[in-house]
What we know:
The complex is a heterodimer of chains A (299) and B (473).
Chain A: H1 2-8, H2 13-41, E1 43-45, E2 50-52, H3 56-63, H4 65-85, H5 87-97, H6 104-116, H7 119-129, H8 137-144, H9 156-184, H10 188-196, H11 201-212, H12 214-229, H13 233-238, H14 252-262, H15 266-290, H16 293-298
Antiparallel strand pairs in A: 1-2
Chain B: H1 2-31, E1 37-38, E2 41-42, E3 55-60, E4 65-71, H2 74-90, E5 96-102, H3 105-118, E6 125-129, H4 133-136, H5 140-143, H6 152-155, H7 160-165, E7 176-177, E8 183-188, H8 189-194, H9 199-203, H10 208-221, E9 231-233, H11 239-248, H12 265-279, E10 283-285, H13 294-301, E11 307-311, H14 315-321, E12 329-332, E13 344-345, E14 350-354, H15 361-373, H16 375-385, H17 398-401, H18 407-411, H19 416-422, E15 427-428, H20 436-452, H21 458-472
Parallel strand pairs in B: 4-5, 4-6, 9-10, 13-15
Antiparallel strand pairs in B: 1-2, 3-5, 6-14, 7-14, 8-11, 8-12
Helix pairs in contact in B: 2-16, 11-12, 15-16, 20-21
Amino acid sequence: MKKKGSFLYSQKAAPFVFVLPFVITFIIFWVYPLISAFVMSTQNIGAVSREFIGFKNYAKLLKDNVFHQAVANSFEYMVLTCALLIPFPMLYAVLLDGKLVKGKGIWKALMYVPALTSVVISGTLFRLMFTEYRTGQMNVLLALIGLPAFKWLKVKWTSEIALLVLCCWRWTGVNTLYFMSGLKSIDKGLYEAGSIDGANKWQMFRYITIPLLKPTTIYVLTISIYAGLSMFLESFMLWAGNDSPKNIGLTIVGYLYKRGIQKNDMGYACAVGVVLLVLAMIINFTQLIINGQFKKEEK
Amino acid sequence: MKRKFLSTLMAGALAASMLTGCASAAATDSEAAPATDDAGVEAEAGTEAEASAEAVTTEGDPNGTHMEMWSFVEAHNTFYAKMLQKWNEENPDRTIEITFTTYPYADMHQKLLMSLQGGEGAPDLCDVEMGQVPNIYEGLDTWLQPLDDAMAPYAADMLTSRLDAYKGSDGKQYGAPFHVGATVMYYNLAAMEEAGLSQADIDAVETWDDWKALGKKYLDAIGNPDGKYWTSVDTGGCDWQWIAMAEYGEDWTGGFDNKANVELPSVKKMCQFEQDMLNEGIAEVSPDGHTDLEAGYQNILDHNIVAFPKAMWYMSRFTNYMPEEAGNWYIAKCPVFEKGQNCSVGIGGTGTVVTKQSSDPELAADFLCFAKMSPEGENVIWQDLGFDVCNTSLWTDDAFAHDDSNQYNKFFRNYPYDVLASIKDQIGTVMTVSISPTINEYMCNTTLNEMFEDGMSVDDALAEAQGAIELEE
């Protein structure tokens, strides 16, 4: 009993004990599934049997046009969401941080509300808004300016708009909050010093705010890349299922779901998952290296 | 001692936070899959609110055999609970207690499949949606209990073509159906009467050409206004193609043994017929792809289309989403290409299975067949769930089919079961096998859009589809 007690109170053991819950969850819910997914991706998994087939699933992926389209769709979505969801939230954060805006609390709350709404509900609402029928909001707006109803969700570029509107509606508030917390950590003295040196608002934004917001920006960029590549639910709800005309709304995760769940081909679905992981890793690591995230660690 | 208490408390808190983490992860996961409409095969469940969270209830005799049952539609479980009570009353020596769990669609099928593959954890009884049948049936009788013996007392009255749809590749019956899902033609008779047409005109329709001519007559009568059509063709569903295949007795899946072939004469004929109607301004493309979505309901409510083929279960869409249409609509059998052909096909559905892991597979099978095939059960299915039941002996039973208190009998101009009884021997089957999701997906995503939205020729579009499907086989 005494020995056990001394182990628990030991200065050396304590840190490990406290880290253990994380390590265990990490191993059970991350490392194990990862290894298992990789192993499964080299198998042909039938209902009652499974056999190793080496890299045949990956070879099939190379020839799979639908998969290529899903990758292209996800990439496009990821790039466009990053292009929209970093500058605008940054701008809103700066505005909300400044003296121009009244009723800041209300604005913050309003902007954050969409993130709390279930995508299932908002996706359905957006589907109804973008319906090709003339009673959909978007077609009502078109009718107001005298244009005929449009088949929004059957055409590539307009469906992309619908997805981006949904995404921006949902995440702008969250990203704005990130940037606002980043802004709070910037020393106000720097702006005073800047104004003494005669810098105008734009110069202060350009040479003080943006560089000092970099850690926040990198964080937001990293999660946006991952979120963009792994998008599924938005498209699933917008087309009321995983099937969209000519697969214009199919994403990598949508394809994984289609293969794994709808067609019960787990081996192939795992290969899709592994490719998604590798892609996300490559992009994020490149981005982090370019942004000098790893250099700092070395210092 | 105090420190020890404190550390225990902290460890407890950590453990608790871990568990909460799991719970919220599970919650988002279940949120991810509220599909009722899978791979183009209409689920019958659209009208019933799908369970958003797990709903668990235990019903029946606590001293009886205990069983587990899963469904993805809460109303189904309510139905089984009702039948369980009747079963226990009638079989005091074989009573059952069942714990019913309602899961979201994808979760439930995934859990069932995993537990069947793993050999443990499967429920005694489980609902399986038509689109998932090929996955769940893969293990045949190593996974599932054949129902052939249990359904023997009722089999003679059941519609064989529907039972066939739930047979395994070994010819054994593994699933018990809820409904036929027979396709019929829905007509807005009120709108047609305004245009000077009558029920007699509809009843005179035999072939698709007659039907198209009637459409032309209707449109001419109302002066061919913009935005008004006779019918709408689907790009997001294959109902029309299924009807055509049933008419010619063909099946693009090729059944269990053969290769899939979408370039069938029946399919080509129907696609060409639809494309011609589009070109002639008799038909439009269904808004948002098919009539079973909000825009489709609105299109019907606005009387933009006045005739369309759909399965019998679409009746519930009228009562749920278009109550204003009460008294307007008339149901008739679908036209055929050549006189004497089958005119209907069973679409969608839920086949309930008994697993081999059940505590008493025979008892479970007996209960299931009692619930879903006996006249008592079929009565409850029609009254509570509103499905066209598979027990054909009831179709001509006056008390059952002509009950004027029934909401569907009140809603439509004629008795739905009269139509069903008149086509009893003309209902075909298109199999759902492992290639089916691929075919449906390619047709609904690409081929039908190419033909009806982009005007691609039927032959080219189907040839492209065939190539893509062959790659998957």
